[in-house]
Amino acid sequence: MTPLPLPQDPPPLFQGLAVEPEEARSILRPQKDDRYGFGFALSPYRGCAHGCRYCYVRDYPNALHTRDEWGGWVTPKLNAPELLWAQRHRLHGERVFMASATDPYQPLERQYRLSRRCLEVLLLCPTTEVILHTRSPLVLQDLELLKAFGDRLSVGLSIPTDDDTVRQVVEPHAPAIPSRWAAAERLSAAGIAVCIAVAPLMAVHDPHAFARRAKASGASKAWVGGLRLLAQDPFYKTLADHGWLKVLTSDYAEEVRSAFQAVFPGRRRVKKAPEPPALPVRAPVPQPGLFDRVG
After folding, report:
1. Can you tell me whether residue 18 is helix, strand or coil?
2. Cα separation of 81 and 97, whole Å?
3. Residue 203 in 3-state DSSP?
4. How do beta strands 129-134 and 95-98 pair?
5. For residue 135, is pLDDT > 80?
6. Angle at 196 between CA 193 and CA 199, to 5 degrees
7. What whole-number distance in Å separates Cα of residue 218 and Cα of residue 157?
C-alpha cells in the first residue's frame, strides 16, 4: 500500500494537544473477551483527546506521560494501515474490535484518517467481522464505507448517562449526548447494526426512559457495563463530590441493567465464520480522504 500524505504539524483545531506521530511496530493485539469472544483489538492511535476522567487506559504503562496528562496527548500510528495489510492473513474468521484503548473517531481522525484507512483494509478481508466502538458522531463521515461491510460490521456507541450535565463532568471533552443519539439514528437508518453501550455506567436520571430512548434510536442491542476504578483514583472524589457513588454499587448497576433488558431481550449469538473466498483479494488503492485537497 502507498501511504497517503499526512500532515506534518497539527492544525490549529488541535493546538494545546500534544500530537506525537510514530511508526508502530505492531497493530493487532490478541484479545479474549466474554462479550465478543476471541479476536483482535486494533487501535490506530495511542492516547485520546476525549480525556474521559474515568478512563482505565490512563494507567497503561507510558514512559512519556503520567496519568494526570491523560487527554492532553495523542500518538497517531502513521503506518497502521500498512501494518494491518501485512497482517491480514491472521484475520480469517476473526473479529476485530476497533478500538479498545482509544477512540478511533477522536478529533484527530478528521486530519489523519487512520481509522478510515484501516477500515478500507478490513473491508477487503471478507471473512472478518468488525466491531467499531466510539463515542463520537464523527463516525458518520465514513457512513458509506461502513455500509459497504453489510452484516460484517456493527457500531457500538458509548452513552454512559442520559444526562448531558453528567457528561460535562465525567467526559468534558467528548461529544454531547444528544449528538450521539443523532449518530445512532443515522447509522440505524442506513442499515448498520448499532449497539448502545452504557459503559462505564454513570449517574442516570431515569433508567427506564433511558432504555426506551436507546430503543427509539434504532439500536438493535444495548448493554450496561460497570465502572473500573484505578488504584487511588482521583475520580472517586469526583463521584463523591457530586453524590454519584451509587454507580459503584451492584444494586444500582442491576437496576439500570434490568431497565435495558426489558426493552432489549436476548443475547448476542456467535456467528460461524464463512468459508475463505475463492478469488484473491487485491491490495487497496489509496483514495483521497474526506478532508484531503484534490486537484
Report:
1. strand
2. 15
3. coil
4. parallel
5. yes
6. 140
7. 12
